[in-house]
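Design a sequence for this backbone.
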C-alpha cells in the first residue's frame, strides 16, 4: 500500500473539511499527516498525525527559523523518511513550495493541491511569483478544482501538462434528506462572500433578481 504524507500548516481549520475528507477516506493508501499546529482536534480526529507544536515552543521556533533561512522544515524530511513515505501531498501552493527540499532529499514525488486563494491572490505577490516559478518547475503534479482554476494556474506559469483536475466531492450516505411536500418550492442556500469568483450576481440597490 502506498504511503502518502499529507502536509498542512494547521490541521485543521474549521472551513477545511474537504482536506479532512481527502486525508481520512483513503482506501488504497496509508495516510500520514504532518502539520505545524493542531486545531479542532475533537472535530477532526486522525491517526498517524505528527505536529511540530507538540514538541514545544523552542523546537517549533527552531523549525520556523530553518524554514525562513533554508526554505524548509527539516523535521518533515525526518518524519517522511521515518514513515517511509512514497509521496508528498501538499495542501495549498505555499505548502508545496516549502516541501521542495524534502522532495529533493528523499527523491519522492510531490503533489500540490490548490484550492482558491493560493491561485488567485498569492501569485500576484512578487516574492511568491518567484517561489511559484520554482514550485512549478520542480513539482511533479498540481491538482486544480476546475477548468477555470486550471487556466489560472497556467497563467501563473504552471505547465498545463503537469495539471490535473481533481473535483472535491462528498459522501451522500452521510446525509439523510427529509421528505418534502411535492408542491413546496425547493430553496437552496449558498453561504459565501459576495465576490465575483463565488459565482453570484451582485445587484445594485433597488435591482431585483430575474
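Sequence:
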Amino acid at each position: 500500500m502506498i504511503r502518502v504524507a499529507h502536509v498542512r500548516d494547521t490541521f485543521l481549520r474549521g472551513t477545511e473539511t474537504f482536506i479532512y475528507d481527502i486525508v481520512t477516506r483513503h482506501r488504497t493508501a496509508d495516510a500520514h499527516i504532518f502539520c505545524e499546529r493542531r486545531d479542532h482536534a475533537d472535530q477532526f480526529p486522525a491517526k498517524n498525525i505528527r505536529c511540530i507544536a507538540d514538541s514545544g515552543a523552542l523546537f517549533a521556533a527552531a523549525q520556523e527559523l530553518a524554514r525562513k533561512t533554508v526554505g524548509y522544515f527539516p523535521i518533515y524530511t525526518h518524519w517522511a523518511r521515518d514513515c517511509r513515505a512514497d509521496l508528498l501531498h501538499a495542501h495549498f501552493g505555499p505548502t508545496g513550495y516549502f516541501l521542495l527540499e524534502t522532495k529533493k532529499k528523499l527523491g519522492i514525488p510531490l503533489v500540490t493541491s490548490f484550492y482558491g486563494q493560493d491561485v488567485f491572490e498569492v501569485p500576484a505577490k512578487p516574492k511568491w511569483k518567484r517561489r511559484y516559478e520554482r514550485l512549478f518547475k520542480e513539482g511533479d503534479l498540481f491538482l486544480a478544482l476546475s477548468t477555470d482554476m486550471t487556466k489560472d494556474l497556467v497563467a501563473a506559469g504552471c505547465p498545463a501538462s503537469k495539471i490535473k483536475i481533481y473535483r472535491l466531492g462528498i459522501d451522500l450516505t452521510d446525509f439523510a434528506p427529509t421528505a418534502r411536500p411535492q408542491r413546496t418550492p425547493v430553496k437552496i442556500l449558498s453561504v459565501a462572500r459576495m465576490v465575483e469568483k463565488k459565482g453570484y450576481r451582485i445587484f445594485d440597490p433597488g435591482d431585483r433578481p430575474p
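The helical segments are 17-24, 57-70, 74-82, 93-97, 100-106, 117-120, 126-138, 147-155.
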